[in-house]
Protein backbone atom coordinates (compact mmCIF):
# COMPACT_ATOMS: atom_id res chain seq x y z
CA UNK A 1 0.00 0.00 0.00
CA UNK A 2 2.87 2.37 0.80
CA UNK A 3 4.27 1.95 -2.71
CA UNK A 4 0.86 2.73 -4.22
CA UNK A 5 0.42 5.78 -2.00
CA UNK A 6 3.71 7.09 -3.35
CA UNK A 7 2.58 6.48 -6.92
CA UNK A 8 4.84 3.52 -7.62
CA UNK A 9 3.89 0.47 -9.68
CA UNK A 10 3.73 -2.66 -7.53
CA UNK A 11 5.55 -5.05 -9.84
CA UNK A 12 2.82 -6.86 -11.78
CA UNK A 13 2.71 -6.84 -15.58
CA UNK A 14 1.70 -3.35 -16.73
CA UNK A 15 -1.50 -2.95 -18.77
CA UNK A 16 -1.24 -3.15 -22.53
CA UNK A 17 -0.15 0.29 -23.74
CA UNK A 18 2.24 0.88 -20.86
CA UNK A 19 5.72 -0.14 -19.74
CA UNK A 20 7.49 0.47 -16.44
CA UNK A 21 10.48 2.73 -15.88
CA UNK A 22 12.62 3.24 -12.79
CA UNK A 23 11.53 6.38 -10.93
CA UNK A 24 14.01 6.21 -8.06
CA UNK A 25 16.09 3.79 -6.03
CA UNK A 26 15.21 3.15 -2.39
CA UNK A 27 17.88 1.16 -0.64
CA UNK A 28 18.61 -1.80 -2.89
CA UNK A 29 15.27 -1.68 -4.71
CA UNK A 30 14.24 0.13 -7.87
CA UNK A 31 10.88 1.85 -7.58
CA UNK A 32 9.03 1.94 -10.89
CA UNK A 33 6.18 3.93 -12.39
CA UNK A 34 4.03 3.45 -15.47
CA UNK A 35 5.09 5.10 -18.72
CA UNK A 36 3.43 5.05 -22.13
CA UNK A 37 4.72 2.34 -24.45
CA UNK A 38 5.20 4.04 -27.85
CA UNK A 39 4.52 0.81 -29.77
CA UNK A 40 1.40 -0.29 -27.85
CA UNK A 41 -0.34 2.96 -26.91
CA UNK A 42 -1.33 3.82 -30.52
CA UNK A 43 -3.11 0.44 -30.71
CA UNK A 44 -5.05 1.26 -27.53
CA UNK A 45 -5.99 4.67 -28.94
CA UNK A 46 -7.12 3.07 -32.17
CA UNK A 47 -9.31 0.50 -30.36
CA UNK A 48 -11.09 3.25 -28.41
CA UNK A 49 -11.48 5.33 -31.56
CA UNK A 50 -12.93 2.40 -33.52
CA UNK A 51 -15.43 1.62 -30.78
CA UNK A 52 -16.41 5.24 -30.25
CA UNK A 53 -16.20 6.79 -33.73
CA UNK A 54 -15.43 3.85 -36.01
CA UNK A 55 -14.66 4.30 -39.65
CA UNK A 56 -16.54 6.71 -41.89
CA UNK A 57 -18.05 8.15 -38.65
CA UNK A 58 -19.76 4.88 -37.72
CA UNK A 59 -18.79 3.09 -34.49
CA UNK A 60 -18.14 -0.64 -34.84
CA UNK A 61 -18.56 -3.40 -32.28
CA UNK A 62 -16.10 -5.61 -30.43
CA UNK A 63 -16.38 -8.54 -32.84
CA UNK A 64 -15.76 -6.32 -35.86
CA UNK A 65 -12.78 -4.67 -34.15
CA UNK A 66 -11.33 -8.11 -33.34
CA UNK A 67 -11.74 -9.26 -36.92
CA UNK A 68 -10.17 -6.07 -38.23
CA UNK A 69 -7.11 -6.12 -35.95
CA UNK A 70 -6.49 -9.85 -36.29
CA UNK A 71 -6.95 -9.62 -40.05
CA UNK A 72 -4.25 -6.95 -40.16
CA UNK A 73 -1.94 -9.08 -38.03
CA UNK A 74 -2.07 -6.68 -35.07
CA UNK A 75 -1.28 -8.60 -31.87
CA UNK A 76 -1.67 -8.01 -28.15
CA UNK A 77 1.79 -8.92 -26.88
CA UNK A 78 2.09 -11.83 -29.27
CA UNK A 79 -1.50 -13.03 -29.00
CA UNK A 80 -4.54 -12.38 -31.22
CA UNK A 81 -7.31 -10.15 -29.89
CA UNK A 82 -10.46 -11.68 -28.41
CA UNK A 83 -13.78 -9.96 -27.70
CA UNK A 84 -13.26 -10.63 -23.99
CA UNK A 85 -9.81 -9.03 -23.94
CA UNK A 86 -11.12 -6.02 -25.88
CA UNK A 87 -14.00 -5.63 -23.44
CA UNK A 88 -11.60 -5.71 -20.49
CA UNK A 89 -9.30 -3.23 -22.22
CA UNK A 90 -12.11 -0.75 -22.86
CA UNK A 91 -13.08 -0.86 -19.17
CA UNK A 92 -9.58 -0.31 -17.75
CA UNK A 93 -9.54 3.09 -16.04
CA UNK A 94 -5.76 3.28 -16.23
CA UNK A 95 -6.08 4.60 -19.77
CA UNK A 96 -7.86 7.73 -18.54
CA UNK A 97 -5.15 8.33 -15.97
CA UNK A 98 -6.15 6.51 -12.79
CA UNK A 99 -6.03 3.06 -11.26
CA UNK A 100 -6.58 1.62 -7.80
CA UNK A 101 -4.73 -0.68 -5.41
CA UNK A 102 -6.11 -2.51 -2.39
CA UNK A 103 -9.48 -3.18 -3.99
CA UNK A 104 -9.56 -6.77 -2.68
CA UNK A 105 -8.37 -8.53 0.45
CA UNK A 106 -5.28 -10.48 -0.65
CA UNK A 107 -6.11 -13.34 1.74
CA UNK A 108 -9.86 -13.78 1.18
CA UNK A 109 -10.32 -12.25 -2.27
CA UNK A 110 -13.29 -10.27 -0.95
CA UNK A 111 -13.72 -6.70 -2.23
CA UNK A 112 -12.71 -3.92 0.15
CA UNK A 113 -14.70 -0.83 0.89
CA UNK A 114 -14.03 1.92 -1.66
CA UNK A 115 -12.73 4.15 1.12
CA UNK A 116 -9.79 1.71 1.49
CA UNK A 117 -8.80 1.86 -2.16
CA UNK A 118 -5.58 3.67 -3.02
CA UNK A 119 -5.84 5.84 -6.12
CA UNK A 120 -2.73 6.16 -8.29
CA UNK A 121 -2.36 8.41 -11.31
CA UNK A 122 -0.99 7.23 -14.65
CA UNK A 123 -0.09 8.80 -17.99
CA UNK A 124 -3.26 9.38 -19.99
CA UNK A 125 -3.70 7.44 -23.24
CA UNK A 126 -7.45 8.07 -23.69
CA UNK A 127 -9.11 11.35 -22.75
CA UNK A 128 -11.45 10.89 -19.74
CA UNK A 129 -14.46 12.22 -21.69
CA UNK A 130 -13.89 9.64 -24.45
CA UNK A 131 -13.36 6.88 -21.89
CA UNK A 132 -16.68 7.76 -20.21
CA UNK A 133 -18.49 7.74 -23.58
CA UNK A 134 -17.11 4.28 -24.28
CA UNK A 135 -18.25 3.09 -20.83
CA UNK A 136 -21.74 4.43 -21.55
CA UNK A 137 -21.88 2.66 -24.92
CA UNK A 138 -20.69 -0.62 -23.38
CA UNK A 139 -23.48 -0.34 -20.82
CA UNK A 140 -26.11 0.41 -23.48
CA UNK A 141 -24.97 -2.50 -25.64
CA UNK A 142 -25.07 -5.00 -22.77
CA UNK A 143 -27.18 -8.01 -23.92
CA UNK A 144 -29.66 -7.44 -21.06
CA UNK A 145 -30.29 -3.91 -22.34
CA UNK A 146 -29.99 -4.18 -26.14
CA UNK A 147 -30.16 -7.50 -27.94
CA UNK A 148 -27.06 -8.29 -30.04
CA UNK A 149 -29.21 -8.68 -33.14
CA UNK A 150 -30.32 -5.06 -32.71
CA UNK A 151 -26.80 -3.73 -32.18
CA UNK A 152 -25.42 -5.56 -35.21
CA UNK A 153 -28.36 -5.50 -37.64
CA UNK A 154 -28.14 -3.18 -40.68
CA UNK A 155 -31.96 -3.18 -41.05
CA UNK A 156 -33.09 0.43 -40.67
CA UNK A 157 -35.93 -0.20 -38.18
CA UNK A 158 -34.16 -2.94 -36.17
CA UNK A 159 -35.03 -2.51 -32.51
CA UNK A 160 -37.45 0.40 -33.02
CA UNK A 161 -40.01 -0.96 -35.51
CA UNK A 162 -43.31 -2.01 -33.87
CA UNK A 163 -46.47 -3.69 -35.19
CA UNK A 164 -49.37 -1.25 -34.84
CA UNK A 165 -52.16 -3.78 -35.37
CA UNK A 166 -54.73 -3.40 -32.53
CA UNK A 167 -53.71 -5.43 -29.49
CA UNK A 168 -50.33 -6.48 -30.89
CA UNK A 169 -47.32 -4.17 -30.39
CA UNK A 170 -44.73 -6.84 -31.26
CA UNK A 171 -41.49 -5.95 -32.97
CA UNK A 172 -41.03 -5.94 -36.74
CA UNK A 173 -38.91 -8.59 -38.42
CA UNK A 174 -37.22 -8.61 -41.80
CA UNK A 175 -38.71 -11.21 -44.15
CA UNK A 176 -37.16 -11.95 -47.54
CA UNK A 177 -38.38 -13.67 -50.67
CA UNK A 178 -36.80 -15.14 -53.78
CA UNK A 179 -33.33 -15.43 -52.30
CA UNK A 180 -33.34 -11.96 -50.81
CA UNK A 181 -34.60 -10.22 -53.93
CA UNK A 182 -37.69 -8.98 -52.04
CA UNK A 183 -37.56 -7.62 -48.50
CA UNK A 184 -40.49 -6.93 -46.20
CA UNK A 185 -41.27 -5.87 -42.64
CA UNK A 186 -43.57 -8.32 -40.90
CA UNK A 187 -44.96 -8.75 -37.38
CA UNK A 188 -42.75 -10.85 -35.11
CA UNK A 189 -45.75 -12.57 -33.47
CA UNK A 190 -47.26 -13.48 -36.80
CA UNK A 191 -43.94 -14.75 -38.10
CA UNK A 192 -42.79 -16.74 -35.05
CA UNK A 193 -46.05 -17.77 -33.32
CA UNK A 194 -48.75 -18.33 -35.94
CA UNK A 195 -50.35 -16.59 -38.89
CA UNK A 196 -53.52 -16.18 -36.82
CA UNK A 197 -51.66 -14.40 -33.99
CA UNK A 198 -51.87 -11.02 -35.72
CA UNK A 199 -53.98 -9.60 -38.56
CA UNK A 200 -51.28 -7.27 -39.91
CA UNK A 201 -49.86 -7.45 -43.42
CA UNK A 202 -46.22 -7.48 -44.50
CA UNK A 203 -45.05 -4.20 -46.04
CA UNK A 204 -42.20 -3.69 -48.53
CA UNK A 205 -39.15 -2.57 -46.57
CA UNK A 206 -37.97 -0.04 -49.15
CA UNK A 207 -41.34 1.76 -49.11
CA UNK A 208 -41.53 1.86 -45.31
CA UNK A 209 -37.90 2.99 -44.92
CA UNK A 210 -38.38 5.74 -47.49
CA UNK A 211 -41.56 6.91 -45.77
CA UNK A 212 -39.81 7.05 -42.37
CA UNK A 213 -36.87 9.05 -43.71
CA UNK A 214 -39.16 11.40 -45.62
CA UNK A 215 -41.19 11.98 -42.46
CA UNK A 216 -38.06 12.79 -40.44
CA UNK A 217 -36.88 15.19 -43.14
CA UNK A 218 -40.23 16.93 -43.51
CA UNK A 219 -41.52 16.92 -39.94
CA UNK A 220 -38.30 17.23 -37.91
CA UNK A 221 -35.33 18.38 -39.99
CA UNK A 222 -37.05 20.98 -42.18
CA UNK A 223 -36.11 24.50 -40.95
CA UNK A 224 -39.75 25.46 -40.37
CA UNK A 225 -40.10 22.42 -38.06
CA UNK A 226 -36.65 22.16 -36.46
CA UNK A 227 -36.53 25.77 -35.31
CA UNK A 228 -39.86 25.60 -33.38
CA UNK A 229 -38.91 22.21 -31.92
CA UNK A 230 -35.77 23.75 -30.44
CA UNK A 231 -37.26 27.17 -29.75
CA UNK A 232 -36.50 26.96 -26.04
CA UNK A 233 -32.78 26.77 -26.82
CA UNK A 234 -32.83 29.55 -29.40
CA UNK A 235 -35.02 31.96 -27.41
CA UNK A 236 -32.93 34.69 -25.76
CA UNK A 237 -35.64 36.30 -23.56
CA UNK A 238 -35.37 36.52 -19.78
CA UNK A 239 -38.43 34.29 -19.48
CA UNK A 240 -36.84 31.58 -21.63
CA UNK A 241 -33.64 31.83 -19.60
CA UNK A 242 -35.65 31.34 -16.41
CA UNK A 243 -37.30 28.23 -17.88
CA UNK A 244 -33.90 26.84 -18.83
CA UNK A 245 -32.54 27.48 -15.35
CA UNK A 246 -35.51 25.65 -13.83
CA UNK A 247 -34.96 22.71 -16.17
CA UNK A 248 -31.24 22.64 -15.36
CA UNK A 249 -32.17 22.58 -11.66
CA UNK A 250 -34.49 19.62 -12.20
CA UNK A 251 -31.81 17.72 -14.13
CA UNK A 252 -29.20 18.45 -11.47
CA UNK A 253 -31.55 17.08 -8.82
CA UNK A 254 -32.03 13.90 -10.87
CA UNK A 255 -28.26 13.63 -11.32
CA UNK A 256 -27.82 13.93 -7.56
CA UNK A 257 -30.35 11.11 -7.06
CA UNK A 258 -28.50 8.91 -9.55
CA UNK A 259 -25.23 9.58 -7.76
CA UNK A 260 -26.94 8.74 -4.44
CA UNK A 261 -28.14 5.47 -5.98
CA UNK A 262 -24.53 4.54 -6.74
CA UNK A 263 -23.64 5.28 -3.13
CA UNK A 264 -26.45 2.97 -2.00
CA UNK A 265 -25.04 0.18 -4.14
CA UNK A 266 -21.62 0.72 -2.56
CA UNK A 267 -23.22 0.72 0.89
CA UNK A 268 -24.82 -2.65 0.15
CA UNK A 269 -21.39 -3.94 -0.85
CA UNK A 270 -19.84 -2.57 2.32
CA UNK A 271 -22.48 -4.23 4.49
CA UNK A 272 -21.92 -7.57 2.79
CA UNK A 273 -25.33 -7.67 1.11
CA UNK A 274 -23.85 -7.49 -2.40
CA UNK A 275 -20.55 -8.12 -4.13
CA UNK A 276 -18.90 -6.04 -6.83
CA UNK A 277 -18.26 -9.28 -8.73
CA UNK A 278 -22.04 -9.84 -8.97
CA UNK A 279 -23.07 -9.16 -12.61
CA UNK A 280 -26.32 -7.52 -11.46
CA UNK A 281 -24.40 -5.10 -9.24
CA UNK A 282 -22.04 -4.20 -12.08
CA UNK A 283 -25.02 -3.74 -14.41
CA UNK A 284 -26.79 -1.39 -11.99
CA UNK A 285 -23.61 0.63 -11.55
CA UNK A 286 -23.18 0.93 -15.32
CA UNK A 287 -26.80 2.01 -15.78
CA UNK A 288 -26.47 4.70 -13.11
CA UNK A 289 -23.17 5.93 -14.55
CA UNK A 290 -24.67 6.05 -18.04
CA UNK A 291 -27.62 8.08 -16.78
CA UNK A 292 -25.30 10.43 -14.88
CA UNK A 293 -23.35 11.09 -18.08
CA UNK A 294 -26.55 11.69 -20.06
CA UNK A 295 -27.80 14.14 -17.44
CA UNK A 296 -24.45 15.91 -17.45
CA UNK A 297 -24.69 16.30 -21.24
CA UNK A 298 -28.20 17.75 -20.97
CA UNK A 299 -27.18 20.18 -18.25
CA UNK A 300 -24.22 21.43 -20.29
CA UNK A 301 -26.45 22.03 -23.34
CA UNK A 302 -28.89 24.12 -21.31
CA UNK A 303 -26.22 26.12 -19.49
CA UNK A 304 -24.33 26.78 -22.73
CA UNK A 305 -27.33 28.70 -24.07
CA UNK A 306 -27.01 31.24 -21.29
CA UNK A 307 -23.23 31.38 -21.48
CA UNK A 308 -20.87 32.97 -23.98
CA UNK A 309 -22.17 33.52 -27.56
CA UNK A 310 -19.45 31.23 -28.91
CA UNK A 311 -21.04 28.26 -27.12
CA UNK A 312 -24.67 28.89 -28.10
CA UNK A 313 -26.73 26.90 -30.55
CA UNK A 314 -27.77 29.18 -33.41
CA UNK A 315 -29.96 28.78 -36.52
CA UNK A 316 -26.77 28.28 -38.55
CA UNK A 317 -25.78 25.39 -36.28
CA UNK A 318 -29.24 23.85 -36.75
CA UNK A 319 -28.95 24.14 -40.53
CA UNK A 320 -25.62 22.35 -40.45
CA UNK A 321 -26.97 19.68 -38.11
CA UNK A 322 -30.02 19.13 -40.34
CA UNK A 323 -27.85 18.65 -43.41
CA UNK A 324 -25.54 16.21 -41.59
CA UNK A 325 -28.45 14.01 -40.55
CA UNK A 326 -30.09 14.21 -44.01
CA UNK A 327 -26.85 13.12 -45.67
CA UNK A 328 -26.51 10.19 -43.26
CA UNK A 329 -30.12 9.03 -43.65
CA UNK A 330 -29.90 9.18 -47.45
CA UNK A 331 -26.38 7.74 -47.60
CA UNK A 332 -25.28 4.30 -48.76
CA UNK A 333 -23.97 3.06 -45.40
CA UNK A 334 -26.84 1.05 -43.81
CA UNK A 335 -25.20 1.05 -40.39
CA UNK A 336 -24.75 4.81 -40.37
CA UNK A 337 -28.37 5.31 -41.49
CA UNK A 338 -29.54 3.10 -38.64
CA UNK A 339 -27.35 4.93 -36.09
CA UNK A 340 -28.74 8.35 -36.99
CA UNK A 341 -32.32 7.15 -37.13
CA UNK A 342 -32.03 5.53 -33.69
CA UNK A 343 -30.52 8.77 -32.44
CA UNK A 344 -33.69 10.70 -33.36
CA UNK A 345 -36.42 8.07 -33.12
CA UNK A 346 -37.67 6.01 -30.19
CA UNK A 347 -40.18 3.89 -32.11
CA UNK A 348 -41.84 3.51 -35.50
CA UNK A 349 -45.28 1.93 -35.32
CA UNK A 350 -46.53 0.44 -38.58
CA UNK A 351 -50.30 -0.03 -38.84
CA UNK A 352 -52.95 -0.36 -41.53
CA UNK A 353 -53.28 3.42 -41.86
CA UNK A 354 -49.61 4.35 -41.96
CA UNK A 355 -46.84 5.22 -39.52
CA UNK A 356 -46.60 6.70 -36.04
CA UNK A 357 -43.12 7.97 -35.24
CA UNK A 358 -42.04 8.91 -31.73
CA UNK A 359 -38.86 10.59 -30.52
CA UNK A 360 -37.40 13.15 -28.11
CA UNK A 361 -36.92 16.91 -28.38
CA UNK A 362 -34.22 16.62 -25.72
CA UNK A 363 -32.25 14.33 -28.02
CA UNK A 364 -32.52 16.92 -30.79
CA UNK A 365 -31.04 19.51 -28.44
CA UNK A 366 -28.17 17.22 -27.47
CA UNK A 367 -27.47 16.24 -31.06
CA UNK A 368 -27.49 19.89 -32.17
CA UNK A 369 -25.06 20.67 -29.36
CA UNK A 370 -22.77 17.91 -30.64
CA UNK A 371 -22.89 19.50 -34.09
CA UNK A 372 -21.84 22.77 -32.46
CA UNK A 373 -18.90 20.95 -30.87
CA UNK A 374 -18.01 19.52 -34.27
CA UNK A 375 -16.59 16.25 -32.91
CA UNK A 376 -17.95 14.13 -35.77
CA UNK A 377 -19.33 11.40 -33.53
CA UNK A 378 -22.66 9.67 -33.95
CA UNK A 379 -24.37 10.31 -30.62
CA UNK A 380 -26.81 8.10 -28.75
CA UNK A 381 -28.99 9.28 -25.90
CA UNK A 382 -32.11 8.26 -24.02
CA UNK A 383 -35.04 9.09 -26.28
CA UNK A 384 -38.63 10.39 -25.91
CA UNK A 385 -40.01 12.99 -28.41
CA UNK A 386 -43.65 12.31 -29.11
CA UNK A 387 -44.83 13.41 -32.50
CA UNK A 388 -48.26 14.98 -32.84
CA UNK A 389 -50.73 13.52 -35.33
CA UNK A 390 -49.56 15.94 -37.99
CA UNK A 391 -45.99 14.66 -37.62
CA UNK A 392 -46.79 11.29 -39.17
CA UNK A 393 -46.85 10.18 -42.78
CA UNK A 394 -48.33 7.15 -44.40
CA UNK A 395 -46.44 4.74 -46.62
CA UNK A 396 -47.82 3.79 -49.97
CA UNK A 397 -50.01 0.69 -50.05
CA UNK A 398 -48.44 -0.43 -53.27
**What class, by secondary structure content?**
alpha+beta
Number of strands: 10
Give the N-terminus to C-terminus distance in angstroms: 72 Å
The radius of gyration is 24 Å
Provide the β-strand percentage band.
5-15%
Question: Total helix count?
Answer: 15
**pLDDT < 50 runs, ≥5 residues:** 148-152, 375-398
Q: What is the averaged pLDDT score?
A: 78
* Biggest sheet strand line-up: 5-9-10
Largest sheet: 3 strands, mixed
Overall form: globular
Indicate the percent of residues in helices. Answer: 40-55%
- What is the H-and-E element order? HEEHHHEEHHEEEHEHHHHHHHEEH
Describe the structure.
The chain has helices at 2-5, 41-52, 62-71, 83-91, 128-140, 148-152, 188-192, 205-221, 223-229, 231-234, 238-270, 279-305, 315-329, 334-344, 361-373; strands at 18-26, 29-36, 98-101, 118-121, 161-163, 172-177, 182-187, 203-204, 345-350, 355-359. By secondary structure, it is an alpha+beta fold. The protein has a 3-stranded mixed sheet with strand order 5-9-10. A 3-stranded antiparallel sheet has the order 6-7-8. A hairpin with a 4-residue loop joins strand 9 and strand 10. The model is unreliable at 148-152 and 375-398 (pLDDT under 50).
Amino acid sequence: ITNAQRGWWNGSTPPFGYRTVVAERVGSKDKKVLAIDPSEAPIVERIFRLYLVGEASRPIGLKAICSKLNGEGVLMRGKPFLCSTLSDLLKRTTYKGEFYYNRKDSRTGEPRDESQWVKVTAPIIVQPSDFDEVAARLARNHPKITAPRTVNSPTLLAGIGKCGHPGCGAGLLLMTGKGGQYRYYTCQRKRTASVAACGSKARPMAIVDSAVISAIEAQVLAPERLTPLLANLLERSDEAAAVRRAEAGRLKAEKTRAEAAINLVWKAVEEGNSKTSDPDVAERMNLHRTRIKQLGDEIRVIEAQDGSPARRITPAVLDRFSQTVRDALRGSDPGLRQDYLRLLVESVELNADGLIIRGSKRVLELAAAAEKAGDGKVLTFARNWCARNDSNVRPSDS
